[in-house]
Amino acid sequence: MKTSLLRIQAIVIKELLQLRRDRMTFGMVIMIPLVQLLLFAFAINTNVRDIPVGVVDHSQTSLSRVLQQTVAATGIVNFTRSYHSIKEAQAAIDSSEVRAVLIIPQDVSQRLVRHPSVGFGLPPSSKQETSRPIAQWLVDGSDTVIAGSIKSLRSMPLTELLDKPANRNTATFEVTLLYNPEQRSVVNIVPGLVAVILTMTMIMFTSAAIVREQERGNMEMLITTPLGSLELMIGKIFPYIFIGAIQVCIILGLGYWLFDVPFNGGFAQLALATLLFICASLVLGLVISTIAKNQLQSMQMTIFILLPSILLSGFMFPYEGMPLPTQYIAEALPATHFIRLIRGVVLRDVAVIEMSFDMLWLIAFTCFGLLVSALRFKKTLD
Amino acid sequence: MNDLNDGQEKNLNVGSPFAISAQKLTRKFSELTAVSALDLTVDKQTIYGFLGPNGSGKTTAIRLLTGLLIPTSGQVNVLGCHLPQEANKLRMKIGYMTQKFSLYEDLTVKENLQFISRIYGLTANQQKSRISELLSTHQLTQQSRQLAGSMSGGQKQRLALAAAVIHKPKLLFLDEPTSAVDPQNRREFWEQLFDLCDQGTTILVSTHYMDEAERCHKLAILENGIKRADDSPQNLMNNMPAQVVEVGASNIRQIKECLIKLPQVISAAQLGTHLRVLVNKEESNPIALLQRQPCLNDTAKLAIVRPSLEDVFVSCTGQGMTQ
């Protein structure tokens, strides 16, 4: 037992020394979370603003211009172009010049006056006429987020347009937004980024761990020593636990100072959740390392795991929106469980123990992975 | 049944003079047979050599004897450990210096030795004294803070030897240890080996250098995974199945072409101004036989000379080729 700890210690010290000499990797430990946090936290935004759109104004009245200004005032769209015909407008959408075009018909003032939302109700007219919309949007519907934003303009109030209170309907539901009342995406993204960055760096570090020893010829020496496979595996992942912890501190610290991401949970809870995830990711990397034949292969496999960890884990798209088979795949990824845990801890102040399923799953994954990699790593050259 | 066998084996090994004993040791890699029915006994406290060209199965044989490879068939007993079952038990007792430098090039000399000593479970105090002792015996004290990757071939080799003996193994395997080393370093290296042997270590070394092989107490000549001969270098030379005739003449190239065609001649090799001809031992008067050849004129000087190890090697492996 004592000699076993000594051997693990030997591997840990050796890994730290090698890491210290490998300036590039050492730099990446700090730079990856730093750059990615700044990049993604600023870039990823699900509230779309200033979509470039065009207008085809058949009416050419002051009313139609006021209508454009009212729409532009929402901030969702930005009128950048004006076209003479619908054909021209469609060509502009085809060529991605604009994402959508507002078509204002010639009789916009009559339509507006008769529109129920404006509420004049007079002069009486046929039902068909009153129900006609004021103008039409032609939208490039391929991007669902942009299409959704423009669709939200469909029943925008036109109060300012006529300087008259609109007869707004009472809402069916009252919605209270907890934890992120201002609906800032960054609040959701920063904790999720912890998962993505850790998945990337942790798996990358250890996936090369065993392969590198093989490629450099050190393995032939190691297997002639009394070093056990499990000792080697534990020694290999141990130093990276600290590196993972440093990265988490960078991400959450910057998230707090720069982006005002609230930090509601306890520090111990955060440390527990992160530790579980770091171990699971490192072990996943080790399993890859025992399968891959060279460092290139291990890198390819890392990316193979990384992509679903970004796309299916709930970091980008809600887990609930995925079909059942995909949900099963997502459940298999450590990142999915960690994203639930860290969002719970950081945003909602939930104790990790209350999310015991995710916690136990990460523990089970770590133990199973460690066992698989120790078994797969053979102490013979066969 | 098994217990009984184990008991017998242990009893045999307590008093056994052999560090290694192998019977009919065979290892196949799909089609290729790398080691074929190798019988081997290595006495304790001796230096035993594997001499053979590249691809003759030296490395595979060493890997089989260290438990790194599992034999296809055959029995191996190393220091009383039955392989491959007791490979783990054996690891504490043996040292292995690989053909390619296999320590960490991005660690310093001292860090490498510290790493290995921890792996072998040396305590902090033991580490300190053992490492400084090894650094001075292997003349690495000045380089102790240098990165292993930046050292010369000779220094790397001394470091590798120091690392392989850090736990004072009873048996040391060296796989072509001097292939990247100049002759001066090679001499010093062998001095170290004799010192180790003197202190009770059994050493098994593989090589393709004749001068190195000649230093071994006992030698096995390997070719294509088959052991061709096995004895002390002196006995090998004495019992060689050929006689060596040295021919001194002016037109050596032509003489060689003509002599090599004779069925009694095993090989002919030029050494400077002389031609070294190996003639089958059954030929009673080799000088007369050669002198009868038309390509030799009267000015040619012929003499029977003492065989060298290279002659042994050529005659052993040459036989294999003609058969």
From TrEMBL, chain A:
Localization, UniProt: Cell inner membrane; Cell membrane
Record keywords, A-Z: Cell membrane, Membrane, Transmembrane, Transmembrane helix, Transport
Molecular function (Gene Ontology), one example: ABC-type transporter activity
Membrane topology: Multi-pass membrane protein
InterPro entries, sorted: ABC-2_transporter_component (IPR051449), ABC2_TM (IPR013525), ABC2_TM_bact-type (IPR047817), ABC_2_transport (IPR000412)
One GO location term (cellular component): ATP-binding cassette (ABC) transporter complex
Domain ABC transmembrane type-2, first and last residues per copy: 143-380
Membrane-spanning intervals of the chain: 24-44, 189-211, 237-259, 265-289, 301-319, 359-377
Family: Belongs to the ABC-2 integral membrane protein family.
The protein, known as: Transport permease protein
Species, as recorded: Colwellia hornerae
UniProtKB/TrEMBL annotation, chain B:
Pfam families xref list: ABC_tran (PF00005)
This protein's record includes keyword ATP-binding: yes
Listed SMART domains: AAA (SM00382)
Key words of the record: ATP-binding, Nucleotide-binding
Keyword Nucleotide-binding set for record: yes
Domain ABC transporter: 20-249
PROSITE patterns: ABC_TRANSPORTER_1, ABC_TRANSPORTER_2
GO MF entry, a single one: ATP hydrolysis activity
Record-linked PANTHER family: ABC TRANSPORTER G FAMILY MEMBER 20 ISOFORM X1 (PTHR43038:SF3), ATP-BINDING CASSETTE, SUB-FAMILY H, MEMBER 1 (PTHR43038)
Name recorded for this polypeptide: ABC transporter ATP-binding protein
Organism: Colwellia hornerae
